[in-house]
Write a sequence for this structure.
């Protein structure tokens, strides 16, 4: 399975995890980075655990970069800051 296929399949997972992170860090000021790290670690654990997929460091770099951009975009449109 190619990295792009993995990333596309992760879209709904990332959105759900972001909702969980919002609840976990509710009331914690300036916790955006913590939320992002939580989602990134959860995504990596899910991909590795669910599929036995380990990938190369280069492949993970591509996936993490795409997921990072996905999180940033979702923050703008689905989870905007209250500030």
């Amino acid at each position: 399975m190619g990295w792009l296929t993995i990333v596309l399949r992760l879209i709904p997972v990332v959105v759900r995890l972001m909702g969980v992170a919002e609840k976990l860090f509710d009331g914690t000021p300036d916790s955006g980075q913590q939320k992002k790290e939580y989602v990134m670690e959860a995504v990596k654990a899910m991909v590795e655990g669910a599929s036995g997929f380990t990938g190369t460091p280069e492949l993970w770099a591509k996936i993490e970069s795409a997921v990072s951009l996905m999180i940033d975009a979702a923050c703008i449109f689905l989870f905007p800051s209250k500030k």
